[in-house]
Amino acid sequence: MRQIKLFRELASGIQTLMLHKLRSFLTMLGVVFGVGSVVAMLAVGEGASMDALEQIKKLGSNNIIISSVKSLEEESTSTTRSFLSIYGLTYQDHERIEESFSTIKKNVPVKLVRKESRLGQNSLELRVVGTSRQWFEVIPRELLGGRILNQADMDKQSAVVVLTEFGARKLLAGSNTIGQTIRIGGDSFEVVGIIKSETSQGGAMQIPDKEIDAYVPITTARSYFGDITMKISSGSRLREKVELHQIIVQVNNIANVEPTADAIERMMTLFHKKKDYQINVPLALLKQAEATKRTFNIVLGSIAGISLLVGGIGIMNIMLASVTERIREIGIRRAIGARRSQIITQFLIEAVVLSTIGGFIGIALGITIPWLITLFAKMPTVITPTGLLLPLTVSIGIGIIFGLYPAARAARVDPIIALRHE
Amino acid sequence: METILPHTGQDIVVKLENAHKIYTMGSQKVSALGGINISFSRGSFWAIMGFSGSGKSTMMNIIGCLDRLTTGRYLFNGKDISGHGDDALSDIRLNHLGFIFQSFNLIPQLTVQQNIELPLYYLGWDAAKSAAHAHGLAAMVSLEDRLNHRPTELSGGQMQRVAIARALATNPDLILADEPTGNLDSKTSRQIMELLTSFHNAGKTIIMVTHESHIAEYAQNRIYMKDGLIEQIEEKQFEGKNHAPN
């Protein structure tokens, strides 16, 4: 008998709020802007971090990238004392990694040489990538025509090349594509395949492949171009001997990525006197980026949350005024037989109705703002379900929290005094 | 949940035994009721009279379960409710009492119908049932054409009739009227008192507080109060229904 159906309470709450439409609307406004700014902030934050995460994911989360770097002491001494600076990864490193780790699924050697290439009138500065066929499995790109490198190419040191879509357009424009012979440096190579290139905007992270790549068998690269390159920098000649520029390793299981990277690191320190290599673990970067993103979102959300809090205080303020204003009504209801809990429910529902409707309007606003940002500022924004549900839940919660005190005040009203109130 | 108290075989609706009410005002203790003993039997119509400060309002609040005795016993339908908590007293007000006030005390934002339905709302009646009941009650007080009006659109007499309809909505054991004609002109006062008398004649128990003797004339029995004590009781001796104070 005592249970009052919730929808009737709701209906009567809405009816009361409708009596003061402007006041209810203004009270709601605090929550509207609060929720709106939280939703918008989260969408902008999410959008910004999406970019970075996309970049990292392209590196492959199961991959470990070991690169040759010129160690610091080498950098300072080479130009003056040694004629030839030798550093970086070696073929031996590649073999050692192959032999030592059972967790490694693929192990790709990479040799990078800058060469001018030519076909007729067309010329292009290429980054010749001497590698094995596994490159195409570790960094999968769509094959547009022909074939990728195979084991036979490696064994026979064939003069074959796989171009990117970009390179093919530049060099082969108009000509027959597959089977064409192009000149790279001083040597002729047959184009056997064309793959799609990933045009990246660069950013903080480096994707292993570039659009100016030309893939040749590593055996071919080694015998044709050798390990020594000559650089002319600031007037002085600089010769460098680097066997491998990169080793890209793919680990069988995502859980093994970090232990394997640690083990490779330990092994490398054993065989390299100088720190002439660098190990990049995209997964670690990914984790780091995700952690950064979380912090970023929490900070943004909290700042916006303050306005939500202010909205809640606005609700409390109006509800307190409403309790004072309606003290006689409370007295009448109590005299008729309403329990304290029913008075609490009545006022709480009014507060929650205000904050919930405010929350929904706020969400509409919060969706519009990022949409406008994307439209006019070309900034990526992402609205996630959490980014909507969280502020909505918080706004309802705020209605409860900030409605509770005024409701309790209403219930504590002494009906005798309230009925005497003019 | 308050159980419905038995009506049969229980003549006395309200009984106060050595009822004391002491208010503490700062360091001073003020005795508002100084040991009242009285019974109100079912079907009777009482007027409580006295000057302001005589304790009549306190007595009304005690009987109306809006206030509690400091010492003494309050039996409602034969059951001691002196120790009842706030919720239990709310339930007695809801199920067994109907209030009529000097200033009508209708809720301004609700329509006449919603005001009449208010006790039924707290009883948890469904909308259709309470609407039908409210229509019946409005017809009893001749306001069936005012159901969708707001209290501010009504005259004083009409507002008091809405309040009477609301007080009758739960078919209470006792109607408490606190200066029901205090804000009305003499003609309207007479109409309201005639309406109350008609409900008394139909078997309702009514306790009314008033300071106007011509209004008190409508009641069967009168209590005169002074300084928190009963000074005098006038009872019309007929039907043998009424009980003298013990």
Overview of this protein structure:
The complex is a heterodimer of chains A (422) and B (246). Chain A is an alpha+beta fold. In chain A, 56% of the residues lie in helices and 20% in strands. In chain A, a hairpin with a 2-residue loop joins strand 7 (181-184) and strand 8 (187-195). In chain A, helix 1 (6-19) crosses helix 12 and helix 10 crosses helix 12 (340-377). The two termini of chain A are 33 Å apart. Mean pLDDT of chain B is 89; it is low at 1-6 and 239-246. Chain B is built from 7 helices and 10 strands. The longest helix of chain B has 16 residues, at 186-201. Chain B is globular, with a radius of gyration of 18 Å. Helices cover 32% and strands 27% of the residues of chain B. In chain B, helix 3 (112-123) crosses helix 4, helix 3 (112-123) packs parallel to helix 5 (156-168) and helix 4 crosses helix 5 (156-168). Chain B has a 6-stranded mixed sheet, sandwiched between helices. Chain B has a 4-stranded antiparallel sheet with strand order 2-1-4-5, covered by helices on one side. Chain B has helices at 56-63, 86-96, 112-123, 127-140, 156-168, 186-201, 213-216; strands at residues 12-25, 28-41, 45-50, 71-76, 79-80, 97-100, 174-178, 206-209, 221-226, 229-234. The A-B interface holds A 1-5, 8, 12, 15-16, 19, 328-329, 331-342, 415-416, 419 and B 1, 61, 64, 66-67, 86-87, 90-95, 97, 99, 101, 105-109, 118-119, 121-124, 127, 166.
Mean pLDDT of chain A: 85
The stretches of 5 or more residues of chain B where confidence is low (pLDDT under 50) are 1-6, 239-246
Total number of helices of chain A: 14
Alpha carbon gyration radius of chain B: 18 Å
User: What oligomeric state do the depicted chains represent?
Assistant: heterodimer
> Quick one: overall form of chain B?
globular
| Share of residues in strands of chain A | 15-25%
Strand content range of chain B: 25-35%
Range of helix content of chain A:
55-70%
Number of strands of chain B: 10
The H-and-E topology of chain B, N to C, reads as: EEEHEEHEHHHEHEHEE
Largest sheet entry of chain A: 6 strands, mixed, barrel
What is the element string of chain A, with H for helices and E for strands?
A: HHEHEHEEHEHEHEEEHEEEHEHHHHH
Q: Looking at the structure, what is the overall shape of chain A?
A: elongated
Strand order of the largest sheet of chain A: 3-4-9-6-8-7
Q: What's the average pLDDT of chain B?
A: 89
Helix content of chain B: 25-40%
Q: Biggest sheet of chain B: strands, sense, closure?
A: 6 strands, mixed
Q: In what order do the strands lie side by side in the largest sheet of chain B?
A: 6-7-8-3-9-10
Low-confidence stretches of chain A: none
